[in-house]
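HUMAN: I'm a chemist; might I ask for a sequence paired with its structure tokens?

ASSISTANT:
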Amino acid sequence: MSEAPAFFVPFADSAEQADRVYASIREFMPKVAFRPTERRIYRVAYRHNGRDYVSTVGEKEREGEPVIAILEAFNPTPLYMICTPSRGVVTGGPILAGDVQAVVDFSSDEAA
């Protein structure tokens, strides 16, 4: 997996807007899934029903929607919540990934 960019949220016009959108997604998650950690994740590679997937913020998920955020939770082991507009951002629960092979965090560089 390649190096990750600085934190961003797709379609956000500024770093401030990205932070607001991300915060609202984090606040929504305990209502529909699990309480997220503070970790900011760029990409997650996982296995679901015997198939391998890679979800990356800013790219389309297997269901065709863009990934807006990927959040980490524990239940009691690590679990990743992949959020798209209709799966965890505007409505509904996130795509859950538990059988994870690799996780890439956003770089520690500040967003542009």
The chain has a mean pLDDT of 93. The longest strand covers residues 41-48. The CA atoms of residues 86 and 92 lie 6 Å apart.
